[in-house]
Design brief:
The complex is a heterotrimer of chains A (about 120), B (about 600) and C (about 475). By secondary structure, chain A is mainly alpha-helical. Chain A has four helices and no strands. By secondary structure, chain B is mainly alpha-helical.
């Protein structure tokens, strides 16, 4: 029983170890060179950080982001369905299997059409 | 025969429905409808009176093990009560046409009156506890409507509430009693119960508790101590309603119920003893209170209380027959007294204080003489009806000396306060302008007075009483009872005359009686304390834990005070979630570790 | 079988989606037309339900028994009445929803309840934790939208946030509990669980009980049982009134059917089943006390109804706690039928009056009997029925519940129930007193009532009485 949890323990150790080692290494190695203000500033892909800590987004951003997530998650449902499809049609009625996914996509489709008609994706509106 | 009982029962219901639903705007039509309905009930009651015993019914609600039967049971008791209820009811209906002439809510009034008649007749006819209880509750509802008829007077609205709530306390006990009886015997039908109850092999505790719980219903409805407080306040209703509620019907329902279910009580001496003393205490307290009231209707109300106490005491003395006999005579003379008082009040422009009356003898002769008849009957002056029935109760108490003394004292007090009332209100000289310009009431009001004066005079005479009262013959009273009751009567009347002849204000001043032994104040305080406590707890929970001031704040304040509000709002939701989680933990802990 | 019953939910779903599409494609059309289409469509569904006999469905997670049919009819009827209310409420919605056209947002307000209805219908038939969960979410998520619908109204928004967070919280408990039960029994299907349970060893009892209690917590939130009721007053008061009615009738009813099915399933293992019943007793007692006592000081009718809805959940829980009695399920069903009639009646009249008087305080009802006798009478009947006056539907429901409590020997609950009925009389009569015994302050004119609402009020009043006077009709509901 307890042995079953060994892999989890190992994973925990590895996770903590990796994070610890990485932090330690950066501290140890970072001390070596000479310092200047540019070097000490936060690493931001070459952009110099400025402005408010939390920039304000248009509310439309959230709307679009939410819709994106919605339709993105849809794939998460499709994937296992697609994987199991071949096995399932052997035992179950193929049309039921197909129909249920069709229904799912249809409902999403309605939502998509609705979102477009309502101008949810129209950034200028 | 079969349909006759149904006609008696349902005609008032039909009238109530028609009035409420259709004839609301036509006040005259409503009042005639209501009178016609009770008239039909009365006619058919007469038919029933001369027909043999019987019973019939049908199953109305059938829910597996539980069935509600609507059925009637006609025996001597029912016959008598039918006559009393529908007869007095009819006269009061007619009288109401005159009394309520100028009232805008006449349709509402007559609708409620019809509903009241229906429910009252339902109690009388019922052949089982469930039907009786339902009618019992309907009586409560309709009396609530009637007492609160003039709801724009806050005192009337309060009185209606009080009557309703106090009655519910009694009804709660009644319901428990019915449930106990039902669970023990498996039936609620009276005829079946009569056989089953005596053969029950149950502990004496049960045989005492169950009847006493049933008695609770009578305590509430017949206004016995300690639930008597609603009855005097119920005077806030229109005077015909006071007569209807006090004379024949609502308060008598309790006594009738005791007589109907007497088989429950007869096997428990303890229960009977408690009933006896509740009745006597009520009777004595009320008689004392009546001696110091100055409102004419209140004096009569306390006198009713006192007489009801006597009836209940008669049941406690294992003589329900005597109690019902007194109920029967009391119904006529008390209705007469109330209607007489109503006639006086009506012609004095709603003046109810007896010290503002006086000298009505010549100005209202019919009212004066009929009121005199009622008074004589109430104070047990031979040969008026009250003499015979009160004598019966006194005779029944002969074996029990304390009870005998108490009843004799009540007789004395009754004579005293009625003499006081009569002397102050009717004799002497007029004390106010209204009293000076008093005039006789219209005929629609005086005719019922005269009609009621007849039974008040003769109903007690043995040959006539035996015609009505076939349940148990009225045995000749022993001499001691007659002598004691006569002495008490004469002494009371003399004392009353001696003290109150040509007085302009009360020579006696006993605050204890005037303020009704402070029982109402005590109850008010009790209710207030419990209410305050409960309301305090609820208010605290609601305001600080539930509301957090947010909802109230939102409706009360404007957005100007937004910041503090928003702060509270956030804390609030967290508090909710916290309490939710706490609830889960407590529940889990209780069930997983607490419950064995 | 010619008509697969599971198709009904799909039809309702399609109806809702179609309305949404129509809404987005026709901008000029009068939006109330959508509500009428919805009502007619649901009416057709109701007729089909009336004709379909109960029977096997061929699906493991979906049943079509008399109880399921009853609840499906129940929610369809509720939704129709909610739509009728929404039409009356449209003016208030328009005030609080910003948009280009004057009727912006109204279409959704009419269409989303139909989606909720589909979810509730599924719940009525679901006997598998997965299907229960999914349909529960369909119901709950659409309610998130509806509760917070009036975007310019702070209390509606506040209600939405509270409902969202607390509901998500409770759903978590539900899913966690279902997971525990699945972990022990290896099943999510209630029928299968019922079969598997008796064979389990005693070492599993705690785990099963833990799972069952967590499921109970999740459902307790839905049916507003104390101590999971904190959201109710705020959310009910803040939400648009038709939605409040929908929440308090529909959402509660389906919560109870799932509760019944779950509790029933655990009765096959007495050591666990008894403790579940003990938990129900605690919840019922707490709910009865809280709902009825807290209602006493209320002066706002909508909030009063919220507390009263908690109180009624207490009576219903009493019936569920008496699951050992034969008629427990029947009592729940009939109580809910009565509850539907009287609650929807009160809310319908509340909407009409508060629309006109611009407020839902009890004071706004002063002197209603002189202004609009019909409305006053309707509310009088509703209040009497809620209080449990004999010859109304509410009395029958209470009576059956008390009978169940008596038969299953729950005497403490019985006593508590009877005492709280007394409390109920007090606060329901407060409304009656305002209507009949107080004179109106202002706005003495008659309140206009649309024909449809008028007919609905009359029907609801009629059925409240019919159910009270001929209870056989109610028992026939399940046959």
């Amino acid at each position: 029983m307890v042995q079953d949890y060994l892999p989890i323990l190992l994973q925990v150790i590895v996770a903590i170890g990796f994070a610890g080692v990485a932090l330690l290494a950066s501290v140890v190695l970072g001390r070596v060179g000479r310092r200047n203000p540019t070097k000490d500033s936060a690493y931001e892909c070459g952009m110099i950080a400025k402005g408010e800590p939390q920039p304000r987004f248009s509310v439309k951003f959230y709307l679009v982001a939410m819709l994106f997530i919605l339709f993105d998650i849809e794939l998460v449902f499709m994937y296992p369905w697609a994987v199991a499809y071949r096995d399932y049609i052997a035992t179950y009625n193929a049309w039921t299997i197909f129909g249920s996914m069709f229904g799912f996509v249809f409902i999403l489709m309605v939502g998509f059409v609705y979102a477009i008609k309502k101008g949810a994706l129209d950034w200028k509106r | 025969m079969d349909s006759v009982a149904w006609i008696i029962l349902f005609t008032p219901l039909v009238s109530a429905l028609v009035i409420t639903l259709f004839t609301q705007p036509y006040r005259k039509l409503s009042s005639y409808l209501s009178v016609a309905a009770v008239g039909i009930s009365f006619l058919f009651s007469l038919i029933v009176f001369f027909s043999p015993d019987g019973s019939a019914g049908f199953t109305w609600i059938d829910l597996g093990i539980f069935q509600v039967r609507i059925g009637y049971l006609i025996d001597g008791l029912t016959r008598l009560m039918l006559l009393v209820v529908s007869g007095v009811g009819l006269l009061i209906h007619i009288y109401s046409i005159g009394y309520m002439q100028d009232d805008a809510g006449r349709s509402r009034y007559f609708g409620a009156l019809s509903l009241f008649m229906f429910s009252m007749l339902g109690i009388v006819l019922a052949d089982n506890f469930i039907m009786m209880f339902m009618s019992w509750e309907l009586v409560g509802v309709s009396s609530y409507l009637l007492i609160g008829h003039w709801f724009f007077r806050s005192s009337a609205a309060d009185a209606a509430n009080k009557a309703f709530l106090v009655n519910r306390i009694g009804d709660f006990g009644f319901m428990l009693g019915i449930l106990l009886v039902w669970s023990a015997t498996g039936t609620v039908a009276f005829t079946e119960l009569t056989h089953k109850w005596s053969s029950l092999a149950l502990g004496s505790t049960f045989m005492t508790v169950a009847p006493l719980l049933v008695f609770c219903g009578a305590v509430g409805k017949s206004a016995q101590f300690p639930l008597h407080v609603w009855l005097p306040d119920a005077m806030e209703g229109p005077t015909p309603v006071s007569a209807l509620i006090h004379a024949a019907t609502m308060v008598a329902a309790g006594v009738f119920m005791l007589a109907r279910t007497f088989f429950l009580f007869e096997h428990s001496p303890l229960a009977l003893g408690i009933i006896l003393w509740i009745g006597l205490i009520t009777s004595l307290l009320a008689a004392f209170m009546a001696t110091q009231q100055s409102d004419i209707k209140r004096v009569l109300a306390y006198s009713t209380l006192s007489q009801l106490g006597l009836m209940v005491a008669a049941v406690g003395l294992a003589a329900p027959g005597a109690g019902i006999f007194h109920l029967f005579t009391h119904a006529s003379f008390k209705a007469l007294l109330f209607l007489g008082a109503g006639s006086v009040i009506h012609s004095l422009h709603h003046e109810q204080n007896i010290w503002h009356m006086g000298g009505l003898q010549r100005r209202m002769p019919i009212t004066f003489w009929t009121f005199l008849v009622g008074t004589l009957a109430l104070i047990a002056c031979p040969p008026f009806s009250g003499f015979w029935s009160k004598d019966g109760i006194l005779a029944a108490s002969q074996g029990n000396f304390p009870a005998f003394c108490a009843i004799a004292l009540v007789t004395f007090l009754t004579a005293f306060y009625m003499a006081r009332l009569f002397v102050v209100a009717f004799l002497g000289h007029s004390r106010t302008e209204h009293a000076e310009h008093a005039h006789e009431s219209p005929r629609v009001m005086t005719v019922p007075l005269i009609l009621l004066a007849i039974p008040a005079t003769i109903a007690g005479l043995p040959p006539i009483a035996s015609l009505f009262w076939r349940v148990s013959g009225h045995e000749g009273s022993p001499a001691t009872a007659i002598i004691v009751s006569l002495v008490a009567f004469v002494a009371g009347v003399l004392a009353g005359f001696a003290l109150y002849r040509s007085r302009d204000k009360d020579p006696l001043n006993i605050p204890l009686f005037e303020y009704r032994f402070y029982i109402d104040q005590l109850y008010d305080q009790l209710v207030k304390w419990t209410q305050d406590l409960l309301a305090g707890i609820c208010g605290f929970v609601d305001r600080w834990i539930i509301d957090g001031g947010v909802v109230r704040g939102l409706s009360g304040m404007t957005w100007g005070t937004g910041f503090a509000l928003r702060f509270l709002q956030i804390g609030n939701l967290q508090a909710y979630a916290f309490l939710f989680g706490l609830g889960v933990v407590v529940l889990l802990y209780f069930i997983l570790f607490g419950v064995p | 079988m010619s008509f697969p019953p599971a198709l009904l939910e799909l039809l309702v779903l399609c109806l809702g989606l179609a309305l949404l599409l129509v809404e987005s494609f026709t901008e000029k059309q009068d939006r109330t037309l959508l509500a009428y289409i919805g009502m007619v469509g649901l009416g057709v569904i109701f007729l089909i339900l009336q004709l379909l006999p109960p029977g096997p469905t061929g699906m493991a997670s979906y049943v079509f028994d008399p109880v399921a049919i009853f609840f499906k009819k129940f929610v369809v009827l509720t939704t129709i009445i909610v739509l009728i209310m929404s039409v009356d409420y449209a003016t208030t919605i328009q005030r609080f929803v910003p948009g280009i056209s004057s009727q912006a947002g109204l279409g959704e307000f009419f269409a989303i309840p139909i989606l909720t209805c589909a979810g509730m219908m599924w719940m009525a038939s679901a006997i598998d934790f997965i299907l229960i969960f999914v349909s529960l979410e369909l119901v709950t998520i659409s309610f998130y939208v509806l509760v917070a619908f009036m975007r310019r109204n702070a209390s509606s928004l506040e209600a939405g946030v509270k409902y969202l967070i607390l509901s998500a919280f409770s759903t978590g408990f539900f899913a966690y509990g279902a997971a525990w039960i699945f972990g022990v029994t290896g099943n999510t299907n209630l029928v299968r669980i019922q079969q598997v349970l008796p064979a389990l060893g005693a070492e599993n009892y705690s785990a099963i009980l833990f799972g069952a209690l967590l499921v109970l917590v999740g459902l307790g939130f839905k049916i507003a049982a104390a101590p999971f009721q904190f959201w109710v007053p705020d959310v009910y008061q803040g939400a648009p009134t038709p939605i409040t009615a929908f929440l308090s009738v529909g959402s509660k009813a389906v919560g109870f059917i799932v509760l019944l099915r779950v509790v029933q399933a655990f009765q096959s293992l007495p050591p666990v089943g008894d403790k579940v019943v003990a938990a129900l007793i605690i919840l019922a007692a707490a709910t009865l006390i809280y709902g009825n006592l807290a209602a006493l000081p209320q002066t706002n009718l909508k909030r009063l109804l919220a507390y009263s809805s908690i109180g009624h959940a207490g009576y219903l829980l009493m019936a569920v706690a008496g699951i050992s009695a034969r008629d427990s399920g029947q009592a729940v069903v009939i109580y809910l039928a009565a509850y539907l009639l009287m609650t929807l009646l009160s809310f319908l009249i509340l909407i009409i009056v508060s629309n006109y008087a611009d407020g839902d305080e009890i004071v706004n009802f002063n002197g209603l009997s002189q202004r609009s006798p019909l409305l006053a009478f309707g509310l009088l009947v509703a209040m009497m029925s809620l209080a449990g006056v004999p010859f109304t539907a509410g009395f029958l429901g209470k009576f059956l519940v008390f009978k169940v409590a008596y038969e299953s020997q729950q005497f403490v609950l019985l006593a508590l129930g009877i005492i709280t009925v007394g409390c109920g009389f007090y606060y329901y009569l407060k409304v009656v007193r305002a209507m009949y015994w107080q004179s109106a302050a202002s706005n003495g004119a008659t309140i206009p009532v649309s024909g449809l609402s008028f007919a609905t009020i009359v029907l609801l009043v009629l059925f409240t009485f019919l159910l009270g006077i001929f209870p056989q009709m109610a028992t026939g509901l399940l046959r």
